[in-house]
Design a protein that fits this description.
alpha+beta; 4-stranded antiparallel beta sheet
Length: about 200
């Protein structure tokens, strides 16, 4: 067990650095103006992944017991397998959705300001030209249950007259104000257990 004394200072340093970064971010947010430009940011990703990371962080030390599986009694092995299923069952779907949303919207920038009547989408550095009149329909997909860790992962599909479909995920921002902004377009609301975009 020489690993634990070495691991503790690293965990304390990591927790202190994380606490300082989040604290500074909160303090500086008081002095900044609300942005109207939305990209996948560290803080947004951390907010979406907080509960899955916490679940994995609490359950992961127990899952290390699988390395000692040959010394465990059968009932201990059954309990350990059940704990592994619960921990991975709660956290892995959120990680899978997060990686899919990240791959889809990594180079997407959303410029949105409802007061100024502005909605623009950029793929990379190129603006996708469209207006409200170019939208054939808007598809809003949310999670059926609010109690699972991946319920915050939602998306909005903008179907354009050109046949192009723009997908905006919750990795960019909370999509409810955007949906409200587009309420006068043909809007389809769907609910799914797993919002795979």
């Amino acid at each position: 067990m020489k690993l634990l004394p070495f691991l503790r200072p690293l965990l304390e340093a990591g927790a202190a650095i994380t606490l300082m970064v989040v604290g500074l971010r909160i303090i500086t947010s008081f002095f900044t103006r609300k942005s109207r430009i939305y990209r996948p940011t560290f803080l947004r990703q951390f907010a979406l992944l907080f509960w899955p990371l916490l679940c994995l962080g609490v359950g992961l030390p127990f899952l290390g017991s699988f390395f000692y599986a040959d010394t465990l009694a059968p009932h201990e092995l059954v309990l350990l397998t059940a704990l592994a299923a619960v921990v991975l069952g709660f956290s892995m779907p959120a990680f899978v959705l997060h990686s899919q949303y990240y791959a889809r919207n990594l180079h997407t920038t959303l410029v949105f300001d409802a007061k100024q009547n502005v909605l623009e989408v950029y793929e990379g550095r190129v603006r996708v030209p469209f207006g409200k009149k170019d939208l054939v329909r808007v598809e809003r997909v949310t999670c059926q249950s609010e109690r699972v860790f991946w319920s915050k992962y939602t998306y909005l599909k903008l179907h354009l007259q050109t046949g192009e479909v723009l997908t905006l995920t919750s990795l960019l921002t909370n999509l409810e104000p955007v949906t409200e902004f587009l309420r006068n377009t043909p809007l389809e609301r769907k609910q799914r257990w797993f919002c795979w975009a």
